[in-house]
Design a protein that fits this description.
This protein is an all-alpha fold and 141 residues long. It has one domain (2-50, 85-139). Helices cover 65% and strands 3% of the residues. The protein has 5 helices and 2 strands. The protein has helices spanning 2-10, 12-46, 73-78, 86-113, 126-139; strands at 57-58, 83-84. It has a two-stranded antiparallel sheet. Helix 2 (12-46) packs across helix 4 (86-113). The radius of gyration is 30 Å and the shape is elongated. The termini are far apart.
């Protein structure tokens, strides 16, 4: 069983997939940082200082013992208040769109670098096929 496992792992596809997953996870962190640390602050500046991370709706009751700010998403979340954090959702959508666009660019470039597929061997033309069918029908009684 150990030798089968070694053979399975040694296959190129499995190793390629593992490398792809690891690089993809690291790339995801880069895109998240790009979105949260560069793009969202610029969008916030353009929209008049809007901070998307603190955009939320309080759905539940705030505990009477809560002493933090009612404007802090993180503090309210820590206190267990039910909230709809749409600002985080908007940030996640922007992360996704950036990642999808970059992957599109990478795949597009990779497709340009690959040689075109070999042309299929030329087969008989329609006229030749019809002639073969005609000849075969003539030979049959």
């Amino acid at each position: 069983m150990l030798s089968e496992f070694k053979a399975f792992i040694a296959r190129g596809n499995v190793l390629d997939l593992a490398v792809g997953v690891i690089i993809g996870a690291a790339f995801g962190k880069i895109v998240t940082s790009l979105t949260e640390d560069i793009i969202m602050p610029v969008i916030g500046k353009v929209t008049g200082g809007m901070d998307f991370t603190n955009k939320f709706l309080i759905l539940g009751d705030v505990p009477a013992t809560y002493k933090g700010s009612l404007e802090s998403y993180a503090d309210l979340k820590k206190a267990g208040v039910a909230m709809l954090g749409y600002g985080s959702f908007v940030t996640a959508i922007i992360n996704f769109l950036i990642m999808a666009f970059v992957i599109f660019l990478i795949v597009r470039q990779a497709n340009k670098m690959m040689p075109p597929p070999a042309a299929a061997p030329a087969g008989p033309s329609e006229v030749e096929l019809l002639a073969e069918i005609r000849d075969e029908l003539k030979r049959r009684p």
